[in-house]
Amino acid sequence: MSESMTLQPIQVDGGDLYWDGDVAPSVAEVVVPIAAGIDVVVDAADTSTVVRWRVAEGSDAQALSGACAETDFHERLAGASNGREIYCAAVHLNPLWTRRALTAAIARWSVAPIDEGVLMLDDATSRHLLGDRVESYGRFALASPTLEILGDECLGGELSSSAANELAIVSLAAADVLSETAWGHVMIGIAAQVQAITTFDDETLRRWIEELVDAASHGLVDTDMAGGVRTLRPTVSSGYSDPHVLPLRILAWRGAGTPDLEATLLAGTESGSVILSAQLAPGVDSNCREACEMSAYAADRRSGTLLSTAPMTWNGHNLVGMLDLSEDAFADACFGVFHASTDLHDLRVGDPLTALVEVDRFMVESWRSRRAAVAARYAVDSSSDSATRRAAMSAVRGFIRESLEAAEFAVETLMNMVSELGDGSAVLSVLLTKRIEAIKSYVRAVESGNDVQAGGHPLLCELLIARGESDDAVGGARW
Hints:
The protein is an alpha+beta fold. 42% of the residues lie in helices and 18% in strands. The longest helix has 35 residues, at 386-420.
């Protein structure tokens, strides 16, 4: 989010009140429902700062002011409701709502492998801390087996102290919500046992840091993403998925600059056919709902005209779709995948939209590295031995370097786009310039090291390495 957010008016739309900070997100926008009829929007990179909000007519505006840190915000809302012209700067969510927004951001935009069962525990905990017992109850009930497994691992000395501390918070919340069920007594026992642990093995923490580096560090790949495809052979092209039209962590992610789609022209077919394939991420069940709702498309690389779409089915651990496409059209086509909930008008195909896909891929990669740095820094404290602290700080420096490299690559791409725009593209130029400003502000925050707001410390799922397909945990796959 840009540091230059200025005073903007609270506007009236029918009976609704809304405010727009007129800034672009550095990473991606996250919509956070506050109460019935009340939503705020934050940038995944800073889930404490509200960039846009709306209060629907008839909704309780006090729910919005109660979620924010500014003590005088309710007076501004009241003034705007009474017809006064009110200008205000961005408001900030309080720590509990910042935590809730962070959980939503990780769920929607993180490309890191995550144990979905543990993420559900984080989600349930953030809702419980805000007093939402109804929504947290169902999530805790579903994820209770995962919590039991984590409790056993913690008691067996397999978790770091930071993960154990967060697990204690989660288990206490679960025990409170499930207190009247059979699970409740189990959760109370887990919470008490985890809280009683006072000694942790530095070797366990060093091993976790090594696993974090292996899991989260891809580095940048020297790949020309222009146009969205690379021609490997005359009959094979590679492409890049768009994070805005997919549920993330469905497809295998090997880095922002590494292709994750492959299109193969089938020779000898009468009208022309192309098989588009994408590998599912480790731990994803090929029969899960999201995987069964994916489609493939082909479009003209220059104009963006949609040429063919087809549903995808699973073949082994790959999703495949059969597209009707002639050999002549194949040479000038780009390919992609999208979820069934996507409006086809939202597909970003053709110049210059494919370059924006590139920017977004590198920015979610940058944010992933930044969050990994936060987790590594948070994992050690004064009780850790010097070797462990050195290992953690080395990991932090590496993640910060990768985060900055990815963000700077995104800025360079956007600046090239602006320089290539013609005179008739003033509106697009303004939008791209705002995105550049937002990412530059993000880079300054990463460089400063001041990247954790109150409530922005790592989630439990960020302090654990996701289990692979071979493990017995229930949370490794989507369900």
